[in-house]
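TL;DR need structure tokens for one chain.
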Amino acid sequence: MTQSSSCPLAGHLQHPRAVRRVSPGPLRSILLGAILCGSLNVSGATAAELDEATAKFQTGQYAECIADAEEEISEGSWNEQWPLLKIRAEMAVGMYTDARDTFEQALRRHPSSIRLRMLGEAVYRYNKQPEEAGLLMVSIESLARSSPWRYSDAANRVALGRYFIRRGADARQVLELFYDQAKKERPDYVEAYLASGELALAKHDYGLAAEAYEKAVELAPDDPDAHLGLAKSHQPSDPEKSAAELAAALERNPRHVDSILMQVDHLVDAEQYDEASERLDEVFRVNYLHPTAWAYEAVLAHLDGDMAGERLRRRAALLAWPANPEVDHLVGRKLSEKYRFAEGAEYQRRALKLDETYLPAKMQLAVDLLRLGEEDEGWQLADEVNASDGYNVVAHNLVTLRDALNDFRTLSADGFILRMEAREAELYGRRALDLLREAKRVLCEKYDVTLEDPIIVEIFPEQKDFAVRTFGMPGGAGFLGVCFGKVITANSPASQGTSPSNWEAVLWHEFCHVVTLHKSRNKMPRWLSEGISVYEERQADPSWGQSMTPVYQQMVLGDDLTPVSQLSGAFLRPESGLHLQFAYYESSLVVEYLVKTYGLETVRGMLDDLAIGLPIEAVLLRHTGSLEKLDANFEQFARERAEAFAPEAEWDDPELEPPLDVATLTEWLEMHPNNFPALQQLAELHIAQQNWEEAEKALLRLKDLYPEDTSGQGANRQLARVYRETGETDKERAVLEEVAEVVADAPEVYLRLAELATEAGQWEVVADNAHRMLAVNPLVAAPHRHLAVAAGRLDRPAQAAQALRAMLVLDPVDPAELHYRLAEQLARSGQREQARREVLRALEEAPRFRDAHRLLLSLVDETEQSADQTEQAAPAGAGTP
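>> reply
TL;DR here they are.
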């Protein structure tokens, strides 16, 4: 490789991450300058038979493969496999001009070849000859129609299938009439399975894709394309298997560019940008013109704040094929995955300017716009994609969801647009809106943020609808809410089964994302974004957010603590759901450490620095002085926190043979008095035997060892049961209140506290626990009932009326009684006309309801008296309108 001194760009290019890298930078600069000046070339030669040449191609020996094919072609071989193989190898290494020469020579020898034309179409595009490429596509259908018998073999069926997919044909028909027929004719024809897998992946049918690629791997275990396709098929559902297949592809061909680029994609997602750049070097050593590799380079430059470098790398990506929409689509998609939706949308618009029919860009633009709150255009684009491609799963899902959203109720106030299912809006819509307004007041002031645009919040009663709105596809189990900056989506309690989470904590968490994404202009790493949100949950309510647990303690003190400088990777492919939850907790602990060590103003300053485009490494260096020091100091902070947690407790399981009895455990505990699992088992045995006094002793010891235990079988909850059984109500109330103070989603605890407070006439306590219940599950009657009674006793008629209205929505057994009670509260608050309507509804349900009759008469009398007083006070000559 050489660098032309005549190139005006050659002396001015610097790698965007030069301050963080050592060796790859010069290579990239030389390549980029040389590409833009057209000064590179590739050549090579050897010889072999077709099967040997194919094996060389599959193992990355491209120059040798080209030489073998050239020798056979020059010796007069009429087998079109040779030019096809040679063209593929030349394209793989960026020899686009040579590939065109090979193609044109081959087409003169094989003038009726559809397979050559399909490959030639790409060759011409990469040689800036779009007109010739278009003519080739036109000629394919003409040939197939004029001589269909000529193209009925398996290889040509697959080629025609790919042609018709390019032309927008019905995917199912192509699968059945071309690919499946090819498989029937030649069950061992690998290309038919590869084509089926490609089609299934394009339509997001990962199960069908996996079936096709598994068969391809079975037939051609050394084909890296088959392993890569299987890796892509398993990526959404089985990351471990996906990684194994990707490794298998690269084991067979370490120079397999598409597999390396899949690795690059993962590394970019994990914010391991230096490693991604190093892998791109491997691609450039194979094909220095590869458009996808340069597109990833543009992504890295953008993320590094190097806008000039980004533009140059985009130019490099489009040099061979200037109208290639895939380049801008890829750059935009990766930016959107980094929550830079505005920039991502702009790239999709660029892609559509190059090719207005390119549906992936149109679909991504629709998704980006919906996440930006630009809904009219977003929905219109989704409609257009759905109309053009009936098998586009994302478009179909979104269009179907839009119909469901039309039935939602919209509540608006203080810059929020809240959409909910109508029944749920009646039950807790106003409460949700009030919570969002309070979050806005607190967090915007805290982080010095002013929000100009409205924030859209959509709460879905069905998890599948939440997933479609959020991800475009069903799935996403485990996500309670997601924030895109101007749009928040959340699961309602109805979608979470019998144990819903605290939806108030979820909304507070997601709105905190609104604030930090706005302040950083969506340029913050995931760990910092999630860390601040979890940290702010704990600041808003001690029962919200995550806290240290015995499992987290062992993870911190073991090998699971991730250095701060690598935290984003912990979110990408965690070993388990537990590791993902731990990543959230650790991130919040990092934020807590930063606030305690450097102050909240430092965290705000970090967000400001990110907003102007500084990479997170530079931001951390600027505010903490050293990444190595930060990693070490945080590790010490986390370990001290873990060591201070339940310091006397021993967590090892007792090595005792089952079945265990009280005597065995008691004897063992004499030697190990602080063993937590053994004490738990002893307490459970005493409870099972109703030995309440002994159970209390064991539970009190557990509480001493681990007072923060918030688990369902924690000592406080078990103690509450003991005290309930023994009739010690005051003690029961005290331990339950301790649980309620630190647990955000324990409705059974809040309900019991409300019941005890009702018996004691402590109406404020009843109201408080009703509110706690409503924050978990407002879709059941109990919290509304308790709140209605407490508010009535506390002379809060408006609050009581709201609770009674909610009870009416929940299909009550005695609606007449509820309408009557609601009328009473409305009358007490001076809303006599509304009270009269409610009492009439009570009488519709129960015509002989005497109390309702009396209330109606009193309301009528008051109305008449008010009218008489008004008439007497009216001046002479005044009339009634």
